[in-house]
């Protein structure tokens, strides 16, 4: 039964990931990515990583993607989707894809390595938190520090600057005009 | 309810399947970063790559019957959240100055 669920969720996850990369509108991309994350969360559940499945839905598909959608809609329309073909980039991308696939298939031995039976504790919140708050207590505290620094940095970056200081204001009268000019130029280059 | 025993035995999956799926998702993320010029979609592709790595960490964790991979995934989640926060703040700041999020337009870091 696990195998059936794997193929179902894996197929949908790959299809939605491809859709995320190929859609032109960033908002559509974000929704496909949320769908992909939900399917990956289901795959986590088939690996009896229950806590991680819940956190994937709550943090990734929930918090982070809502943040992405918020910024995407805040920034408005963006013009071009796919870059001009660059042979070097195509080469690098092809090499990366082939290399990663080859490495991963080699790592798994190229055959079906079945999973061992695990007890009911595997992946529960008790087991994860026990490990995290004993053996990994120092990295755990460092994570708190990292998140604090990230919050301070984000607030400093996104803060509206006081008049007379360096940088432009988001509500400056120049911005809508420039944006309109941008959209006209974008429409012209698309045609 | 039809009898699914034969079908279930035919689709037995193991570590290799999950690692292969992880490789495919990571590759799609790499392709997204390389070919998309929209900085927002590039960020989303990075998130997809992180998720692919999480998937392989958790499948190894299941394979070894060892919980350390799960703790690692938690740390990856925290770093991804921090990265998204700071990265999108930088993006908003760039958009205020340049009125675009097309990375081809970012020829220099700051004018």
- Helicity level of chain B: over 70%
Uncertain residue segments of chain B: none
Mean pLDDT of chain B, nearest integer? 84
Shape by Cα distribution of chain B: elongated
Mean pLDDT of chain A: 80
Main pleated sheet of chain B: none
Structural class of the secondary elements of chain B?
A: mainly alpha
End-to-end gap of chain B: 67 Å
Number of helices of chain B: 4
Q: Categorize the overall geometry of chain A.
A: globular
Number of distinct beta strands of chain B = 0
| Rg of chain A, nearest Å | 22 Å
What keyword list fits this structure?
heterodimer; A: 191 residues; mainly alpha; 7 helices; 0% strand; globular; B: 111 residues
Written account of the structure:
The complex is a heterodimer of chains A (191) and B (111). By secondary structure, chain A is an all-alpha fold. Helices cover 71% and strands 0% of the residues of chain A. In chain A, helix 1 packs antiparallel against helix 2 (26-46). The longest helix of chain A is centred in the N-terminal third of the chain and has 26 residues, at 50-75. Chain B has 111 residues and is mostly helical. Chain B has helices at residues 5-10, 15-35, 39-64, 68-98. Chain B has 4 helices and no strands. At the A-B interface, helix 1, helix 2, helix 3, helix 4 and helix 5 of A face helix 1, helix 2, helix 3 and helix 4 of B.
What's this model, at a glance?
By secondary structure, chain A is an all-alpha fold.
Topology:
The complex is a heterodimer of chains A (191) and B (111).
Chain A lengths: L1 H21 L3 H21 L3 H26 L11 H21 L17 H8 L4 H22 L15 H17 L1
Helix pairs in contact in A: 1-2, 2-3
Chain B lengths: L4 H6 L4 H21 L3 H26 L3 H31 L13
